[in-house]
Amino acid sequence: MAHKRTPSYVNLNKNTNWLSTPAVWAWYLGTVFLSWLVISAILDDAGLAWTYVHLVHGVVTYYLLHYCKGGVEEDQGKYDLLTFWEQVDSQVYGTRNRKLFTLMPVALFVLATHGTDFRKQPLGLNLVVVLVLLIAKLPALHKVRFFGINKY
Amino acid sequence: MKGQRSGPWVVDASATSGALLVLLMLWAVAAPAHASAPAAESATPTRSMGTDSSTQTDESEDYFHWQTVKDLVGSVVAAAVGGWREGNGGWRGLEVGFIRGVQEIWVIFGPGGKLHPAYFLEHFHGHIMVEGVLLLIIAYLFLQSTFKPKPHREEPLTDKEITQLCKEWQPEPLVPQVPEDDKVHSRIISSYEDKYVVADGKRALNLLSHNFLNLANTPEMLAVASTTVQKYGVGSCGPRGFYGTIDVHLKLEEELAQFMGTDEAIIYSYDIATVSSIIPAFANRKDVLIIDECCGYPIQQGATLSRAAVHVCKHNDMADMERIMIMVEEEAKKEKRPLNRRIVIVEGIYASNGNLSPLDKMYELKEKYKYRLVVEESMSFGVLGENGRGAVEHWGLKPSDVEVVCGSMGNALGSVGGWCVGTTEIVEHQRLSGSGYCFSASLPPYLATSASQSLCAMSQPEGKARMAQLRKNAASMRKMLANIPDEDIKMVEHALNKAVQQVIQ
């Protein structure tokens, strides 16, 4: 029997390791669902509300995941150049948390487009938002900055 | 990590493809100006697709036919030829023909045209295919396995390798063999008497300790320490932030600040943790440090812990320091880095070789290139300067000229611990960010009162007399040692003994 050494993957990055705590997914999905309820109550249109949820979710997650860098921890600025998305799960791609964040915009896009008549919703805007979010999450764009925006 | 490339290539490629993608999307979702009639008629309140099957079957049969392609190409060619005729041949004809051809292409590909994505979406359940594709993407992502970071994977050891390793292993002795030369032959010190010690039964001058002003273990200090122990006990039982702050700490901090002429002072409980905590509190990954090559261990540790970019300049070489400052500025300009903190760290008197650092020239340099100066005055506090305030006073600088002045209380003050003085901002920041301050137990109260006592003694005429005597001794020692050739240790020892005899007499 070969001697196997089990490596340990401990995530010490306090900025992002809270994503692995229990019920974070439920909180995220719950927030999105609740916001849909509120918006559909205000607009009186459940289908169009998904568009609004999709757009607002897109803007908010883009800012929080792909614009905000560093974090709250006193770590001599170790992660000050990395966006939140790049720091998640010790910079490993393909993990569960990453899949959830990648799928959410797509799922919301499907709900938004399916939710109401094609002419009632800004289809182009929905498409732009989902594509921008998907591209931003690609592993190929890890630590890539365009035109020096948000570099420092 | 995958995709981690540098240089302008990736940016250009991504920028172009990004722009193309955006244009593509805008084209795809442009609503047709004359919203296609068949779809509009059959639009239901919530769904506009999937109900007009009658019109669709006819069109779907045509759509993927070669005939359709031939028709479309034909219409473009016809438009071009018509244009040429319009322009009556020649160059004008070509011009108009070209324009008509392009216009016809736009009619086909543009909004409302047969080859525009909206046509596809509206007429052939296109949206269902798009959603199907998206669902497939979702399923693919969902079922994709997690990548494991490959560098961490290790080959498991085979049984044979394990046996081999076990056979080869030799236990190391618990107590390693020490060569005779390296062995320390300690002398047993039986008592201290003022500046003498009795070692191995012989009375000798104590040149071992850094008790520069001979203030340690004076009767006054011992009395004060004894009273403090009676009052507070020995330890402080906590860090400064958690019930470890005692009034004697605050009193010592006030007295130090007053003595040095600054806003505030802060006390650390461990000498070498002082500067090692101060540097990381003010510098991080983005910053630049310039330290002298003869700076001691605590400064080196502090520089490492801060994770800043450290540049080592030649000992007391101002030209080298200027060269480094210019280089840093050029690099920052080239990379367009945002402004970061730049700090120069030196010692007042270097512990490794006893040299003074030229703080006057250093001050000019740091003002010119906008650096902050940290002076570690462990060896020079109580030694240099009119009033014993250290190297800063010695070189004629004001307390506000140097940003951070710190040092150990273990030398001239004859106590234990470290201190740092500066403006309120500098000191208050350390109360939360100085690791040695926040995360260590505070100074035992009797050491704080002993330091207060020494500080008091230094401020009085008696203290000034001690400083004068110290300077005299140091000068005579240097004069006498200056002529010793350094070949033979025994000769040096002998000469040293003679010199010391002369000094005490």
From TrEMBL, chain A:
Major localisation: membrane
Keyword terms of this UniProt record: Membrane, Transmembrane, Transmembrane helix
Ranges annotated as spanning the membrane: 24-43, 49-68, 100-116, 122-141
Keyword Isomerase set for record: no
Protein topology in the membrane: Multi-pass membrane protein
Cellular compartments annotated: Membrane
A Pfam family recorded for this sequence: ORMDL
Keyword Ribosomal protein: no
InterPro entries: ORMDL
Protein name: ORMDL family
UniProtKB/TrEMBL annotation, chain B:
Ranges that cross the membrane: 124-143
Polar residues: bias regions: 44-57
Signal peptide (UniProt feature, chain positions): 1-35
InterPro entries: Aminotransferase_I/II_large, AON_synthase_class-II, PyrdxlP-dep_Trfase, PyrdxlP-dep_Trfase_major
GO function term, MF aspect, one: transferase activity
Keyword set includes Signal: yes
Gene3D superfamilies from the UniProt entry: Type I PLP-dependent aspartate aminotransferase-like (Major domain)
Domain Aminotransferase class I/classII large residues, every copy: 205-493
Pfam family, one: Aminotran_1_2
Pathway(s) per entry: Sphingolipid metabolism; Lipid metabolism; sphingolipid metabolism
Keywords for this protein: Acyltransferase, Lipid metabolism, Membrane, Pyridoxal phosphate, Signal, Sphingolipid metabolism, Transferase, Transmembrane, Transmembrane helix
EC number(s) from the headed UniProt entry: 2.3.1.50
Superkingdom of the organism of origin: Eukaryota
Keyword Flavoprotein among UniProt keywords: no
Cofactor or coenzyme needed: pyridoxal 5'-phosphate
Annotated region described as Disordered, given as residue ranges: 38-60
Family per record: Belongs to the class-II pyridoxal-phosphate-dependent aminotransferase family.
Name used for this protein in its record: serine C-palmitoyltransferase
Organism: Dunaliella salina (Green alga)
